[in-house]
Amino acid sequence: MKKLIKVRFKPTGRVYDFDSGAFVLKSGDRVIVETEQGLGLGIVVAPPKSFDEQQHDRLLKKVFRLANEKDLYQQEKNCNVEKSAYAYCFKRIKELKLKMHLFSVESSFDGNKLTFFFTSEGRVDFRILVKMLTKEFGVRIDLRQVGIRHKAKMFSGIGRCGRMICCSTFIDKFAPVSIRMAKNQNLSLNPTKISGLCGRLMCCLTFENDTYKALMDKFPKLHKTVTTKKGKGKVMRHNVISNRLTIRLDDGQEIETGLDEIIQEQKHK
């Protein structure tokens, strides 16, 4: 039986699964692992546990070796290069008057590639900028334009729920989010209350949307006329979680009743 460990590359970054191979590891160990971008240095954030390779949805990459002092020095060197690259690129963007917002620079572990992440409202011609960066640092340069949600995913942060934002912890792909989802869940439509750190609608609005839709199918629609034990009235509000709804009777009185107490639903005239 093989052992699975969880590795994080950044203090607030996403956690990835790796096969520990023959290494005996514990939380806090620094390891060199195989990634899609080559070797990378990460820290073990969960103790190893057994897993069945046949039941896993994908083939896990293995731990290459334990990190040594030379690796830690290389990581520190990369961090310094990232800082200087950010400052240099930011200055050149101002000089060239490019309409782009640089927010992060990442160096590959071997130091042979620098990736510059930026946001922009439209397409940007950065060919001259790439030439300047290549000449200055003498490595492969990649300028990558990302959306505002991907920026939040990379930066991470604390959401209004008090937890790390979902996109930086476990969400792999961004699902479409609409204001209709907030309406289905009877949430406030105030943009400041249903928007995430990125300024867009919160991803968590999608988590319970299907459940709310399934429950809502059992309820009579708003403003429909129904019959209760206290008389006829129109449906004014739904409380899906409590399985109750508010009815305005013909005499103007509002009552709250359970869904199972509705006698009959009539077509709205």
Question: What topology does this entry show?
Answer:
Layout: E1 2-8, E2 15-19, E3 30-35, E4 38-51, E5 63-66, H1 69-96, E6 101-107, E7 113-119, H2 127-137, E8 140-145, H3 148-155, H4 179-184, H5 191-194, H6 209-216, E9 225-228, E10 231-239, E11 244-249, E12 254-258, E13 264-266
Parallel strand pairs: 7-8
Antiparallel strand pairs: 1-2, 1-4, 3-4, 3-5, 6-7, 9-10, 9-13, 10-11, 11-12
Textual characterization of the structure:
The protein has six helices and 13 strands. It is elongated and about 80 Å long. By secondary structure, it is an alpha+beta fold. The protein starts with a strand and ends with a strand. It has a five-stranded antiparallel beta sheet with strand order 2-1-4-3-5. It has a five-stranded antiparallel beta sheet with strand order 12-11-10-9-13, with no helix packed on it. It has four domains: 66 residues, no CATH class; 74 residues, GMP Synthetase, Chain A, domain 3; 61 residues, no CATH class; 42 residues, SH3 type barrels (Roll). Helix 1 runs antiparallel to helix 2. Helices cover 24% and strands 31% of the residues.
Strand arrangement in the largest pleated sheet: 2-1-4-3-5
How can the largest sheet be summarized?
Answer: 5 strands, antiparallel
Report strand %. 25-35%
Q: Percent of residues in helical segments?
A: 10-25%
Pairing-aware structural class of the strands and helices?
alpha+beta
Radius of gyration: 27 Å
Report the CATH C-level class of the largest domain: Alpha Beta
Report the end-to-end length measured between terminal Cα atoms. 67 Å
Uncertain regions spanning at least 5 consecutive residues = none
**Can you count the beta strands?**
13
